[in-house]
Amino acid sequence: MTNAIEVEGLGKRYRLGEGLASGTLRDAVSDGVARALRRGGRSRDEAADVWALRDVDLAVPQGASLGIVGRNGAGKSTLLKVLARITEPTVGVSRTRGAVGSLLEVGTGFHPELTGRENVFLNAAVLGMPRAVVAARLDDIVDFSGIGRFLDTPVKRYSSGMYLRLAFAVAAHVDADVLLVDEVLAVGDAEFQRRCLGRMEDLGRSGRTVVFISHNLDAVLRLCSTALWLDGGRVRGVGRTADVVDDYLREATPDAGRRSFAEDPDSPVSLLGIDVREADGGSAGRLRREEPFVVEVDLGVRERVPGLDLAVSVETLNGVRLLDEALSDTAQSGPGPLAGPGRHRVSLTLPPLLMPGEYLVNVWAGTTYETLVWEHGAARLRLEGSHQARPDRLLAAQGVWTVTAAAPR
Ligand SMILES: Nc1ncnc2c1ncn2[C@@H]1O[C@H](COP(=O)(O)OP(=O)(O)OP(=O)(O)O)[C@@H](O)[C@H]1O
Ligand SMILES: [Mg+2]
């Protein structure tokens, strides 16, 4: 199979402080950093160079879809800009076969003073589409973008979402063999994002090669058969998307894992440890929104406590309590397994009810009469996944409906 993209020994070095002419905030910030470093007495060249990409090798077969993941500043956008020939590599080579369409960071390609319609023609021309072809496809492009009656408004009056929708619509209707897309899902509503993903899937199916950068790992999993993980400008992993995303997530949450606490000598009951992990026994640090997870609590009981109960709650970082589960071990005085002395491991499996984000897990233990353990934020957990996915597991609140006849107006 022929490769649509071939990259060998690619490196891209930025000289901090040289980017100011292009006037972006990032460049201005970089410039400030460079000056601060120079004041520190190091020579300009050591201090002010950033290798945004280093030793990157990559081959993408025609018709494949490649996802690129990595932290902020990992070099993802830089790689796309090199592939799109918007920027030159410092060392190495990058080859693409066929026409390349790209949707890079919002802000590239559109002229603020021109109307949406004028920008469609301009943008499509830049991407190599003849005017007659654009005219024939204008309705499709406008339909897809959903900007409708704003077509003849200068795009400087557009919201960033409208701007992006139109830019994506153009990129998606150009006859490109290779489509490069940088983080389109950051802007735009859920409906539009679904359409973008659908369109990219269609393009992929029709033999186009798609390279897609996103922090939305669910979208990457859905769209891309292979993925590339960039870390500090270098390739950390490449291969099957599920494997690469798993490796990336495992490293992205290094503070996951069992946490231990010292025994409280003044209390008959102590929290000794807590762990939050995937329910299927997978390794820690890979909690995904759509999978159940387990909170495992180690409790030390020094002397028998009748009616001992344990509760685990989950709250958002700003204190909104979302889940509360009590073990309600036994009848008030019954000698349940928890009540006796020893070290007990108690596991609570929670269904996938929460949206992606960070949460605190709190542990309470005690009886009806007293609190013996209260550890607020005993563990912190992060659920990865898509915010866009419909919350298809809403709690049924069991509210009471009533219907009465309304008085006629
Ligand atoms: N024009 C520039 N001048 C100087 N440094 C730059 C320039 N563009 C990018 N960089 C630097 O290169 C590195 C890689 O940036 P890049 O934008 O490719 O990262 P990214 O992976 O796309 O990050 P994000 O997820 O935040 O979009 C960063 O250290 C960044 O500061
Ligand atoms: Mg980027």
Task: Please name the defining characteristics of this protein.
alpha+beta, Rossmann fold, Coagulation Factor XIII, Chain A, domain 1, six-stranded mixed beta sheet, four-stranded antiparallel beta sheet, 9 helices, binds adenosine-5'-triphosphate, binds magnesium ion
Helix percent reads 25-40%
> Which series of helices and strands comes N to C?
EHHEEHEEHHHEHEHEEHEEEEEEEE
The poorly predicted ranges are 19-32, 36-44, 330-335
Largest sheet: 6 strands, mixed
Tell me, what's the shape?
globular
What is the tally of helical segments?
9
Radius of gyration: 27 Å
What's the β-strand tally? 17
Head-to-tail CA distance between termini: 72 Å
CATH topology of the largest domain: Rossmann fold
Distinct compounds present: adenosine-5'-triphosphate, magnesium ion
Write the layout of secondary structure elements.
Layout: E1 3-15, H1 25-39, H2 44-48, E2 49-61, E3 65-69, H3 76-83, E4 91-96, E5 100-103, H4 116-126, H5 131-145, H6 160-173, E6 178-182, H7 190-205, E7 209-213, H8 217-223, E8 226-231, E9 234-240, H9 241-252, E10 259-260, E11 269-278, E12 293-301, E13 309-316, E14 321-326, E15 342-350, E16 357-366, E17 371-383
Parallel strand pairs: 3-7, 3-8, 5-6, 6-7
Antiparallel strand pairs: 1-2, 1-4, 8-9, 10-11, 11-12, 12-15, 13-14, 13-16, 16-17
The protein binds adenosine-5'-triphosphate (ATP) and magnesium ion.
Adenosine-5'-triphosphate binds at residues 14, 16, 19, 27, 30, 50, 52, 70, 72-78.
